[in-house]
Structures are given as structure tokens and as C-alpha cells.
What we know:
Helix content is about 80%, strand content about 0%. It is mostly helical.
Amino acid sequence: MENLSANVNVNRVGILVLTVGIIFLVVNSAMGMLLSAYCLFNVCLTDVIVILTTVLIFISVRSRLKTVFRISLPFVFSLFGAAQFLAGIFAPARAEDNFVLIGIIIALVVEVIIFLVTLYFTQPD
């Protein structure tokens, strides 16, 4: 019975993560349409960051990791995502010679490596 309750909670948290991600995506896209200073490149970049961060958090919540990792990884990914989002807002509006974009890509790779290493070296609950 306890396992069924844990599954229901994981499902609810997963739905909550997706809902919050969609809200952030809609608000960011709306701000991109309303603010003339918010370039299309930056809007698309930050939209991609929101989508990838939401997917990483969703996967970590739904994974069969130990509870401590299912709690801590979404927090870490949220911090990475917030930093990437802020960097994406202020990044130069071009893809070439864009060191902020390179930093965002490197941060994303670090996030994926953290998740894969955690997945590989931990046993499920």
C-alpha cells in the first residue's frame, strides 16, 4: 500500500513539474511578443532552456533513484536552469562568437553528466 501511495505522489509531482514548465514557457513567449527589446533569438534560447530544464527535472523526479536524489537533483537542475535562463536573456542576439551560448551548452552538458553519473552509481529505493 505504501508503494502505491509513493507512486501517486511521484505522478502528482511529475504533473506539477510539467505544469510549471509550461507556465514558464507560455509567460516567456508572451514576454517575447510584448517586449520589443527581447530579441527573437533570446526568446527562442530561453524557451529551449525552459523546455530542457523541465524535461531534466521531470526525468529525475520520475526515475527510480533513491529518494534523496529525486529530491536534490531537481533542486540542482532548477538552479542551473535559472542561471542559464538569466544568461539567455542577456546573451548577445547572435549564434556565432557567442560565449554566453557556449557557457549555456556546457552547463547543460554538466547537468546531463550529473544525472547520468547519479543514475549509474545509485541503486533504486
